[in-house]
Design goal:
Elements (H helix, E strand, L loop, with lengths): L13 E5 L6 E9 L3 E8 L2 E6 L24 E10 L7 H4 L9 E12 L2 E2 L5 H11 L8 E3 L3 E3 L1 H10 L4 E6 L7 E10 L1 H14 L2
Parallel strand pairs: 1-11, 6-8
Antiparallel strand pairs: 2-9, 2-10, 3-4, 3-5, 5-6, 6-7, 10-11
Length: 210
């Protein structure tokens, strides 16, 4: 009998490379780029630990996200995703995430888009399309909780990008369907920013630069 793989205690996230133009390709999947804090979620013993891409703990910063532990149908798991604050229309707003007080009118959500480890099994060498299928099985079916599955389309990236642009979301991430999970920057994942996403980043750089 195969021994279980040890659960990792830290993860160096896989990072997409910036790409100028949206594209379509049957060998790629395309999903929304949420405007928030990238976070690895370690789930065990009925609780979650959230860690930023810079290895800083985000658990205490977002206490409401402890509730997502009840929604993960597993014993142990390591998820990759984004912590985002959505307004009343369901649109992620980064400025709400940075607010010191979690006021009414918005809710903090963990949008999971990858699964790296599940119940004693290291999944990093499996293709992303398979990892996402396993991820979907352990997450809530209803997309109303604080833990949500990041859905995707296969092939038609241009159509998805047009819809994300219409909704004024940050952008799109394209992932080669057969890509394994590797740490650091990679061209197997690409991100394309919408006009709204580019404008938001420009405003942030001008605001934070003063």
């Amino acid at each position: 009998m195969k021994q279980p793989d040890p659960m990792p205690s830290i993860v160096e996230p896989m990072l997409p490379t910036l790409f100028k133009y949206p594209f379509s390709n049957p060998g790629w999947l395309f999903e929304p780029k949420w405007d928030g804090f990238r976070a690895i979620c370690f789930f065990e013993s009925g609780s979650v630990r959230l860690v930023s891409r810079n290895k800083k703990s985000l658990t205490a910063k977002f206490p409401a996200l402890q509730s997502i532990a009840k929604s993960i149908r597993a014993t142990t798991a390591v998820l990759d995703g984004e912590i985002a604050a959505v307004d009343k229309t369901g649109t992620p707003r980064f400025n709400l995430l940075r607010a010191k007080e979690q006021g009414t009118g918005h809710v903090v959500i963990y949008f999971a888009f990858d699964l790296l480890y599940l119940d004693g099994r290291d999944l990093t060498q499996e293709p992303v399309i398979k990892r996402k299928a396993l991820l979907k099985k352990i997450l809530p079916r209803r997309q109303v909780a604080r833990l949500r599955y990041t859905d995707h389309v296969i092939g038609d990236g241009k159509a998805m990008f047009a819809e994300l642009s219409r909704l004024k979301l940050e952008g799109m991430v394209a992932k080669r369907c057969d890509s394994i999970y590797v740490s650091g920057r990679t061209r197997a994942w690409l991100k394309v920013k919408t006009a709204a996403g580019k404008e938001e980043m420009q405003q942030r750089s001008e605001t934070w630069g003063h």
